[in-house]
Specification:
Layout: E1 8-12, E2 16-22, E3 33-39, H1 41-51, E4 55-63, H2 66-77, E5 81-88, E6 95-99, E7 108-111, H3 122-126, E8 135-139, H4 148-161, E9 166-169, H5 180-191, E10 196-200, H6 201-207, H7 211-217, E11 223-227, E12 233-237, E13 240-244, H8 257-270, H9 275-289, H10 302-311
Parallel strand pairs: 1-4, 1-8, 2-6, 4-5, 8-9, 9-10, 10-11
Antiparallel strand pairs: 2-3, 6-7, 11-12, 12-13
Helix pairs in contact: 1-8, 8-9, 9-10
Length: 313
């Protein structure tokens, strides 16, 4: 498999605004106030990477308004590179998520009609000098509609031609797709271009036969990680197939775990750790995030992650 030449990742997908019902534990309909945070799966992954001491640059579009400017300011706050961020005019709007900090019956209301990140076009990704970066991480939501779908597939192709490993977090959100059948067909086309595929049991199920599909993809893909929530994960890497458990914690919320897993896993891989250690660090980061309010703000720094792994089995 191609190696990461430097610890600088390109991350492609959405960035948005999250509003959390306050105080923690409140239902949205009962909230007295809301706190704001950077959101969106790709933005969260980029923040997870930078907080662990590596570099990340986001490829996305935001709306030409105060919310778009908030997102850019937050990315810069977390040292995420914005050289491939684009501001789009017109009626497109940056994504908004209204979320609860509740471990049970957690409601998330997502506003994605005319989302600005779906305006990412081929002209945006053609400008990138991929050889300047170490790897491309794609979040699968960017494949849901055009022109973002074609732009994402082109970015994957150009990155691979430049010698970069291509990684996908399947990130299936049914509300973004016209049908499950269209999602399955598109994800399979993208999977053929990837060096690493990460998804949960539901996402692999949408693509085909779940665990059986993950095993089949592993014959032509360097690493496939099949996540199963509280049951842990199964990793396929070459001749290896192994299960990894979770770090038991008292969760405040279910959101952000997958993004944190990706950030810790991929930075550990870039640092040369063996595959089992990479998955364990990803699992630990996921456990940390669900114990805190927010997603981007909850991503652990390297020292916190190391200490957590020392203190927890």
């Amino acid at each position: 498999m191609k190696n990461i030449k430097n610890n600088h990742f390109l991350v492609l997908g959405r960035a948005g605004l999250d509003l959390y019902a306050d105080p923690p534990g409140s239902r949205t309909e009962d909230a007295l106030t809301f706190s704001s945070a950077l959101g969106g799966s790709a933005a969260n992954i980029a923040v997870a990477i930078t907080k662990l001491g590596a570099k990340a640059s986001l490829i996305s579009c935001v709306s030409d308004d105060a919310v778009g400017r908030y997102i850019i300011n937050q990315l810069k706050h977390y040292d995420v590179g914005c050289e491939h961020m684009h501001v789009v005019a017109g009626e497109a709007r940056s994504s908004l998520a209204v979320v609860e900090t509740r471990s049970e019956n957690c409601q998330s209301v997502i506003y994605r009609n005319g989302a600005s990140d779906f305006q990412l076009g081929e002209e945006h990704v053609r400008r990138i000098l991929y050889a300047d970066y170490g790897a491309l991480i794609v979040t699968g939501t960017s494949l849901a509609v055009e022109p973002s779908r074609s732009a994402t597939l082109l970015a994957m192709k150009l990155a691979s031609e430049a010698g970069l490993p291509v990684i996908i977090d399947i990130d299936y959100r049914p509300y973004s797709w016209a049908s499950a059948a269209e999602a399955s067909q598109t994800y399979m086309a993208a999977a053929e271009m990837c060096d690493i595929i990460i998804g949960n049991d539901v996402e692999f199920g949408v693509m085909g036969e779940g665990l059986a599909l993950a095993r089949r993809l592993a014959k032509t893909t360097a690493i496939v990680i099949y996540k199963m929530g509280e049951k842990g994960s199964i990793t396929f890497a070459g001749a290896q197939e192994f299960e990894t458990g979770i770090y038991p914690v008292t969760a405040l919320k279910p959101t952000g775990a997958g993004d944190s897993f990706m950030g810790a896993f991929i930075t550990s891989w870039a640092d040369g750790l063996d595959i089992q250690a990479c998955v364990k660090r990803g699992s630990a980061a996921a456990a940390i995030v669900v114990t805190k309010v927010g997603c981007a703000p909850a991503m652990p720094a390297a020292e916190e992650l190391d200490q957590f792994m020392k203190d927890h089995a």
